[in-house]
Amino acid sequence: MKIIDKTPLQDNKGNINIIARVQGTLKYGLNWFAEMEAQKVVIAQLDHALEKSFVLIRNFNLPGSKIIIPLILIGLGGTYVIYVTPAKGRFEAKGDQWNTIDNSGNSQPARINLLERVVKLTRAFQKFLEIYKIALPTPVEPILIAIDPGAHIEAMRPIVKVVKSDVIKVFISTLLQAAPVWRSEKLHALVDRIVEPRLREEEPKPESAALVEPPSSYSPSRFEDSGPAQPFDANDLGFAFEEEGHVAATRSGLPKSAAEQPQLAQPRPRPVSAPARRKILGMSSTQAIVLAGLIVMWCCVMVGLAYIYLNQ
Predict the structure, then answer these.
(1) What is the pLDDT of residues 161-193, one digit of tens each?
(2) How do 107-109 and 97-101 pair as beta strands?
(3) Same domain, 190 and 289
(4) Distance in angstroms (rounded) separating the CA atoms of residues 128 and 236
(5) Number of other residues whose CB lies within 10 A of the CB of residue 290
(6) Structural domain includes residue 270
(7) 171 φ, ψ to 5°?
């Protein structure tokens, strides 16, 4: 399996040092590092079992936005957006509801609806493909994978496929058995278009174009490559993203009808940017202050432990 890793803040060996970990936590949320480690667990299993005809794009930042798609798996049998969670506990996946279950068996909505999050990340990716005129032979399928054996999930017709830790191998086998929907060369051409989306200067830019839902029927044998209408703009997705962890979750869904769909506006002139703030080791002043505070706390703990040890 070919892996294209776009994960921010990691070194050439794929490691995230302590400073990068603090930066990532401040920028993407408290769960960011745990989710990066959870992704590695799933990637290792996929890489071990899947053939060279599969391509995995990790943590792809949609151009012109802060939206990061965790895992995009592309194979001859289809395309998948995969969200990996390290969460553990008792959960209920019922339709579009993601609930927690307490010791008494009572359920209540979880603070973050992981099912809705995966669906909206998938919609954002589909919008990106649509704007860049990349039509897939099959719809993008959203997948939620829980890697912790301590995650007990009661699934009742959830809106996305939920894969628990003990059935990851079964899920991988279904990927291998899926009927091909395109040829290998078409797949790799698609990957190139996704990783390096570009405008074609020889093609005129339309003044506006309506954003609509992905078509209900797709060509079974190929994807169209006619060049994008204009650069991807997160404001054109039809719903607003807010920061929730290392990816953004949405407050509301897509418009229900084509009449409610937003129009792609003319490119606005870029505002004159303010002078860049001076950074310390690549960090903003706020991040540097937080890091310094953590170091001071660590030093105090070490001094306290040394004092206790010497006075025993």
Answers:
(1) 999 999 999 999 999 999 999 888 889 899 999
(2) antiparallel
(3) no
(4) 10
(5) 16
(6) no
(7) -60, -45
Q: Which two tokens stand for residue 66?
A: 């802060």
- Which domain does 286 fall in, by range? 282-312
Same domain for 241 and 294? no
Give the model confidence (pLDDT) of 80-126 as tens digits: 999 999 999 999 999 999 999 999 989 999 999 999 999 999 999 99
Q: Which amino acid, residue 258?
A: A
Please give the model's pTM, rounded to 2 decimal places: 0.69
Confirm if 265 and 86 have CB atoms less than 8 A apart: no
Is residue 26 domain-shared with residue 163, that is, in the same domain? yes
Do both 168 and 296 map to the same domain? no
Using left for φ > 0, alpha for ψ between -120 and 50, and beta otherwise, residue 9 falls in: left
